[in-house]
Each structure stands twice: as structure tokens, then as C-alpha cells.
Amino acid sequence: MPFAQLVIGPPGSGKSTYCDGMHQFMSAIGRKCSVVNLDPANDHTSYPCALDIRDLVTLEEIMADEELGPNGGVLYALEELEHNIEWLQSGLDRLGEDYVLFDCPGQVELFTHHSSLRNIFFRIQKLGYRLVALHLTDSYCLTLPSLYISTLLLSLRSMLQLDLPHLNVLTKIDKISSYGPLPFDLEFYTEAEDLSDIIPHLLEENPMMRHPKFEGLNSAVIELVEDFGLVAFETLAVEDKKSMMTLLQAIDRAGGYAFGGAEGANDTVWQVAVRDGMRTMNVRDVQERWIDRKEEFDELERKQLEEEVRAREAPLDMGNAYNEEDEDDLEEMQRNIPDSGIKVVRRS
User: How far is residue 285's CA from residue 270's CA, in Å, rounded to a whole number?
Assistant: First the structure.
């Protein structure tokens, strides 16, 4: 049974960067992975593309032929893919049992109320794939209460629309400290509980929010999100191995994937480590690493990297040193060999 991630999120959230990073990471841990591009506007992918919607239809062609703008063109392209789902099915058949990452377009209407993308996902599911929707959002949204509340609503609407195992992810968490101090610890934002505490900060952000009608609206939105009790967030720094492993384990739990089968000699180091309970990062670890003590950890990792480089170079240097010492010892031994008085005559 093949598994797949459906990578969605607004423009600039890091979907293609994530697909590239996760593809490399899975290759490193011994999991065979392929990436499928479902974005007709993405004409330059940083990852090796196993299947590309642009081989079926391109945004430029649609905009020229149908006289549509970019957003309308992307919607049209997904409708075209829905009507030609056999093309996608035949491409997926060629991938066999590969773990698949679907890099989706960034138009939010595709995963909030437009039906084509959802229908495509359901058709993929009928092919036997175990799917997990991964909704990425730039962690910059935490810097403004209004952005955070909008993100909560968008995440909730996406979860209800797609009706699949679903994880919301705050990307670029390694940049969060550069945006200035947050009014709450990171755990407040990732757990999305006791959201009424954010209302005073929302009023400080915009004096217009002090109007009674806005106060009522804000309270209603917060109560809506809390009543559903569905929204929570994982975090991701795509260049950090521990962060990637933590997220991948959360995805595996959501989709039912297990690292490897029975234990065997062919298991990779990563497979054994994960099965044996490799320690990952919780939200307090993330707070400490990327917010409270970022500079200290950066310096520590820099020193560790330098030590690893020196350790890799050391055996070569030692090998050269041993060779030189061996030659000196040999010369010394030859000088110290006593003359036995026996002369050896070699006949030609």
C-alpha cells in the first residue's frame, strides 16, 4: 500500500522548498520517494519531478486560449486534470510503491471551497494511497494577532474541506526570532487553546478592533475555532535534521506509515534509530532552540560541524604521518643491521 503527502498552503509558505528538502531527507533515511508537481504555474522545480502536470497542461496555454488571469487559469488547470484523471493514474502506476509528495498550487480557494482538488485527492485515495494533507503556513503569521486568527480560520476550513488526515505546519520556524518578540510562548500558538487571551493584543494592533461589533466578531471567531477543537500546529525548520525527523514521525503517525518491516540486516541506520525511539523535538525544545537560545545553539552547531570536518580529515593526515614514520624506521633499521661477513654473489 503506497503512502503520500498532499502539500498545500498559501503562496510563499515553502511548499516546493519542503518537497525538495523532504525528498532529500527520505533518500537519506532509505525511503524511496517521488515528487509529483500539481502546480501548472511552477515551471522550475528544485526537486527531481517524477510527474508534472505541465506535461498535460500549462498555465500559459490556458491564459492565452481561455483569456483567463493567473488565478482563474490555475483553477481551470485543476479542472482539466480532474477530467483527465487517467493521465495522473497511469503516471502514478509507473511509480509503484514509492512514497509520493504532491506539490500543490498555492491558491487557497483550491483547498477551502473549490471541489476539483478535493475530488482529485479522493480519486488518488481510491487507487490505494494512504494520504496525509500537510497545510504549510509561514511562521511570520505569529507576529500579528490578526494574521494568526486568519491562519486559524484558513487551517480549519481546509481541514473541513479536504476531510483527510491533516497536519498544520508552521514553516521557517528558524526565522521566527528575527521578527521580534512574541507576546506568548510558542506553545500557545501551536496548541491553539485559550485563544481569548489574544484579544487584548488584537486590540493593540488595530484601534478599530475596539468597536463593539468587531469585539463580538473576534470573540465569535475564537469560539468557533475552540469549539471545533481541531486546529493545532507542528513546526518546521527545513534545513534542520531533527526538525525534519520530528515532523516526519508526526506525519507517519497520522497516515499509519511504519518505518521498515521486520528488523533485518538491510535496515538503514535511520530506520533502526526511529524504531528504537530516537529522541525528537517537542514544542519546548523548539522554543529553546529557535527563540530563547538561538545564537548559543547556532554557535554550538558551528563548532560541532568544524569538529566533524576535522575528524573526517584526521585519518588521512594520520595515514600520511604513519607512512613517513615507517620510511624513517626502515632507513634506521637498514643502517643498524650488522655486517655478517657473508657475501652473496648473484649469478647472471
Answer: 21
